[in-house]
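Data deposition worksheet. Section B asks for the primary sequence of the deposited chain exactly as it was used as input, without tags or linkers unless they were present during the calculation. Section C holds the resulting structure in token form. Section D is free text for depositor observations; keep each observation to a single sentence. Incomplete worksheets are returned to the depositor.
Section A, Depositor: J.P.
Section B:
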Amino acid sequence: MAFEPPERLVRALAETSDDGDAAWRERLPGLVEEALGACGAAPERVHAPGGRSSLVVLVRLADDVPAALKLAPPSAAPQAEALALERWDGWGACRLLGRPAPGALLLERLRPDVSLRSLAQAKALLEAADTLRKLWVEPPAEAGLPTVAERTAPQAATLEAAPGMYRPLADAALAARTELLADPPEELLLHGAYGQGKILAGDRAPWLAVGPSPVTGERAYDLARLGLDRVEDLVGADTGGSSSRRRLSRLADSLDVDRERLHAWTVFRAVYGGTAALRRGQRAMGEALLEYAGCRPLGVRGDSAQWGRTGDCRGRRFSDGARGGPRTLRGEGVACAAA
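Section C:
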């Protein structure tokens, strides 16, 4: 099969320093042919624009059943995704049909061009919450899935090295993580990268999740990623702060998740995601996430080594909650996500 990998995937692979991913990119045409031959599938087309961490080929199986063949580099941990999909067995997520070759997953085909992002915000969040509820189950018995603590450890190390202009907010996020991990309330299988773009329309169910980056831990960590969806719209609205607080509160209440733990995980994920986006040169996304978490960029261009632009970051420490329960971020500096 002659093809060109989608440009989005090519750019993402160019940003990584992982030698294994670079080698995977060079071998990709042969890997596709190997996987197609192993499952006896006829290729239709490469899905584009696709994602940043995998190649998806739409195929037809020998019995004319449509399917999707997904190939991912080593850093994307396709074996972990397979474990999660096997555990869900089609409940709330696309069904795993087979593993035809190392790093390749044969998946139930959904409608790749129709995600929850096609719906209005309120309706999309309602459907996303309903689907996410189904995914929170006991982890698979097999070892191999990282915990939330393990997943966030390298992220925390990155925040430890945050430039001075982002130190207050980074310190608040790091303190939040430390407190949250000290007393985790549960250990469930989590999607790990759940957002509206990861829920596609299906035939046997209206909406099904795809593309997990599974971890085990508390539900608030998973829900925090959904709370950050369409963050640019939130920070651009006149009522951005109050809108974000209402969104998180509604999500927490609808799924019986502790509000304060959700608020704190949202701040951590926003601060890390914002600084990571700035390092990649994605200024608009980075600034939106940091503003959401409480960092207000002033519009002064800074050195790229300082992760983008300077700003007034007024993060506060992780202090005791007003009701004596779980502790949460308080103060004007993180009002958008934690008030």
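Section D:
The mean pLDDT is 84.
DSSP finds twelve helices and 14 strands in the chain.
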